[in-house]
Amino acid sequence: MLAAVLGSPVAHSLSPVLHTVAYRALGLDGWSYTAHECDENGLAGFVEALGPEWAGLSLTMPLKRVALDVATDVTPLAAAIGAANTLVLRDGRRTAHNTDVAGIVQALREAGFVRGDRAVVLGAGGTAQAALAALRELGVGEVEVLVRSVARAGELLAAAVRLGVEPAVHETLADPARTSAAVHGADVVISTLPAGGADHLTGAGQGSVVFDVVYAPWPTPFAANAAAMGARVVSGLDMLLHQAVAQVQLMTGRPGPLEPMRAALHAAAAART
User: Fold this and answer.
1) What is the Cα–Cα distance from 250 to 95, expressed in whole angstroms?
2) CA–CA separation, 76 vs 56, rounded Å?
3) Alpha-helix runs per DSSP H in 138-235
4) In a designed cystine with 107, which of 25, 55, 229, 238 is the match (CB 3.0 to 4.6 A)?
5) Could you say which residues of the chain have pLDDT below 50?
6) Against a cut of 0.90, is the pTM above it?
7) Angle at which helices 15-26 and 236-252 pack, to 10 degrees?
């Protein structure tokens, strides 16, 4: 059976490491997992050309939203979020799932976060939409989303309505001082910004859990500053690990082997640095 990760760019992806070691640990001889460069315009053609030997696809940027357009079925969670990172291919059907939510939830729980009163999310893309769903699952009451432009946060606001949450959205990202002040005192801070996007921010400290989805290089300046101020920090590697564990189960029908996948992931990340 075949599976792959698609995205653009995709050469940096560690998903092949995770899935390949999972297949080996599960004794799935004949399974392979590769990476393919694919942009939004190429996704439909790529998927249409797949044969019955394909079990699934992992989808990274910029494909998470357009993934819903090529699916024959969409899970309620992926539909509510408005983004999918997984296509399960079975019996001629293409089912869109979102395992980013499980990745965020499990990463935060491993860091000791159980619940909190206030969360701050930085950014308004597909991962931020998954973060809203994760915070809902974790029972966080008050959520603030910090963006550069509310006018460009329409898809996030629509996802919030579908998820039944009501985040407060503020245009502060262009102002480091205001953003750092907004972050101060939050129980959990999730940065979904691209590499370098949160480097200039401070404010999260003692008692906070700070989750930066960027994992290379690690620690990011944002995470290092938070750790120095007493926060517990979570790397994007942790999210990548747990969302892949969920993907393996969806694609193979077998529970993803967490510890072998964790060891392989951290070894691969260390080798790169």
Assistant:
1) 10
2) 19
3) 154-163, 176-183, 221-228
4) 238
5) none
6) yes
7) 50
**Helix count and strand count (H, E) for the chain:** 11, 12
Distances (CA, A) of 97 to 14, 77, 81, 106, 191: 20, 7, 10, 17, 22
CATH number of 2-99+238-272: 3.40.50.10860
pLDDT for the residue 114 = 81
Q: Which is the catalytic residue, given 22, 38, 64, 70?
A: 64
How many angstroms separate the CA atoms of 100 and 86, rounded? 9
Q: Where are the domains of the chain?
A: 2-99+238-272, 102-235
- The answer to whether the 2-99+238-272 and 102-235 domains have the same CATH topology is yes
> What is the pLDDT at residue 89?
98
Q: Give 22-80 pLDDT, tens digit per residue.
A: 999 999 999 999 999 999 999 999 999 999 999 999 999 899 999 999 999 999 999 99
Angle ∠(57,34,76) on CA atoms, nearest 5: 15
CATH number of 102-235: 3.40.50.720
